[in-house]
Amino acid sequence: MKLLLIDSEVSQADWIRRRLEIENNQVMVSPDWHTGWMMAHQSHYDIVLLAMNLQDSVQLSSFYLWAVETHDVPLLLIISPDTPANKAWVLESGADDCVGNSVDIRELMARLYALYRRKAGHFTTRSELSIDDLNVNLSEKSVFRAGKRINLLPREYYLLVFLMENKGRVISKKEILETVWNAADAIRPNTVEVYINYLRNKIDRPSTTKLIHTVVGMGYVIRIPDDV
């Protein structure tokens, strides 16, 4: 894998880089977020690793920018302080996975490979998904309904794409968590409901035709209602 590691702690970055390279990964290191941002836009990386202190307001602002602008590159955060609440927050805010800064290298490698497999599994030759008047351009990461652009956060976008790739099929909460978040044990129990509601507010509320449906006790499905 070709990895970009952004970490201002030089000794920690060097430790992570050396161990990842032992596993035959190509690792580029940036000591600051601005340089890392430029590197990410000048070359392709399979995964970006961001080391972040959640008590640093500048790093928090930078993380929001990464989460919104880099839909197509998985983000794995290495955080401190390392608490369950902090991990849940960064996952719900757009990170694809999260570990503490004292993570064992074997766990880190396992999570990186899981992200890499997940990214490869989501590859599709289709450039667009559509149902009724809802259209998603996969190349541009853009969403339109009835010709009007809809702005989605990264996790909302991934959830919508997953629903549309499986349109007409009821998908359980467990499957959504394992596919869209890839860390079902580290987020709040009502996370899926919250994000389904976000999508409904942006996708369905402005339209008379509701596409996102709850199947009680089973999960969620995106489909055109029978009475339309």
From TrEMBL:
GO terms for molecular function: phosphorelay response regulator activity; transcription cis-regulatory region binding. The keyword DNA-binding applies. One of its GO terms (biological process) is regulation of DNA-templated transcription. It holds the Pfam family Trans_reg_C. Residues 126-224 form the OmpR/PhoB-type domain. GO terms for cellular component: cytosol; protein-DNA complex. Gene3D superfamilies: 3.40.50.2300, Winged helix-like DNA-binding domain superfamily/Winged helix DNA-binding domain (1.10.10.10). Residues 2-116 form the Response regulatory domain. The lineage of its organism: Bacteria, Pseudomonadati, Bacteroidota, Cytophagia, Cytophagales. The keyword tRNA-binding does not apply. This is Response regulator transcription factor. Residues 126-224 bind DNA. InterPro entries: CheY-like_superfamily, OmpR/PhoB-type_DNA-bd, Sig_transdc_resp-reg_C-effctor, Sig_transdc_resp-reg_receiver, WalR-like, WH-like_DNA-bd_sf. Keywords: DNA-binding, Phosphoprotein, Transcription, Transcription regulation, Two-component regulatory system.
